[in-house]
Design goal:
Length: 291
């Protein structure tokens, strides 16, 4: 009995610890890079005024290249740590559960492609609706994307982070350790919900957090369907790649906006049905009966 309570407490802690650790690592990397830049600037500057020296350091630190570098280093360190935790604690020391639990690859591929595209549109229309309702959220989001160099000409380093390292790190963190820890102590529906909430909160921005929560629900369900981290990593990569490419979206007036939003939701729902039908181990009834 005591052992069961200890195991339960450990799993509950690991629902939240990955997010906390990731934030600590991100902060530590940012501080270390700031200190490195100060030392480098101190050794190369020709300015004698301290205020000018600090201004130069802060300008370089706030540059898109610097932010991309921080993101890449953070994602690499966090991804490695989460991989080890996920493999050792929830995969019995195996690589990452590489067995694909798919009954029909054709349906699975069509479903995931439709999911990636439709979820991009679902989140775009969600962002537009929230931006209209809460203009301050849009201003915060614009300030964040501007600082990160995501507004127009995205840098190659940020593309590598957004499309490659970022998805790997976040999937190991949220659909890996967090999700599996939650599955140990609660029904699958709540495990999916909890990891999506933490995924949204982790983005530290109301607008981005809202669409990350919606995306997290879909990714969590995909992880449940296929029990395979590679699948959700590829879905996340595809989603971010489409975001970088910026597919055209309709909805110039209220009526067309409603129709486009509805269409994206319908396609997203159909894609989830296809993904579910391609799973070899679960079905809808098992989802609602799982404890």
């Amino acid at each position: 009995m005591n052992q069961n309570k200890t195991d339960r407490g450990r799993h509950i802690a690991w629902i939240f610890l990955p997010t906390i650790f990731a934030m600590i690592i991100q902060t530590a990397v940012a501080i270390l890079i700031m200190e490195f830049m100060m030392v480098w600037e101190f050794g190369t500057t020709t300015k004698s005024d301290y205020a000018d020296f600090i201004t130069d350091v802060m300008v370089k630190y706030a540059s898109p290249e610097s932010i991309a570098s921080i993101s890449l280093v953070y994602a690499l360190i966090t991804g490695i740590i989460m991989f080890v935790l996920y493999r050792n604690n929830y995969r019995d020391g195996q690589i990452a559960g590489l067995k694909f639990k798919v009954s029909n690859w054709g349906i699975m591929i069509v479903g995931t492609v439709l999911f990636i595209i439709s979820m991009q549109y679902v989140t775009v229309y969600l962002m537009n609706a929230l931006s209209a309702a809460f203009p301050s959220w849009l201003e915060e989001y614009k300030a964040m994307t501007e600082a990160a160099g995501l507004e127009s000409d995205i840098s190659p380093l940020m593309i590598v982070y957004a499309v490659l390292l970022g998805p790997i790190c976040e999937e190991l963190l949220f659909r890996g350790v967090t999700f599996f820890a939650a599955r140990k102590v609660m029904p699958i529906q709540f495990a999916i919900l909890v990891q999506a909430i933490l995924f949204g909160a982790f983005h530290m921005n109301k607008l981005q957090g809202a669409y990350a929560f919606v995306l997290g629900l879909g990714l969590g369900y995909a992880m449940y369907l296929y029990d395979n981290l590679i699948v959700v990593i590829l879905i996340h990569m595809g989603y971010n790649l489409i975001g970088v490419l910026e597919l055209p979206a309709g909805g110039d007036n209220l009526f067309t906006f409603f129709l486009c939003s509805l269409a994206s939701l319908v396609v997203a729902y159909l894609s989830i049905i296809l993904m579910r039908n391609a799973s070899s181990v679960v079905n809808n009834e098992e989802f609602f009966a799982d404890n």
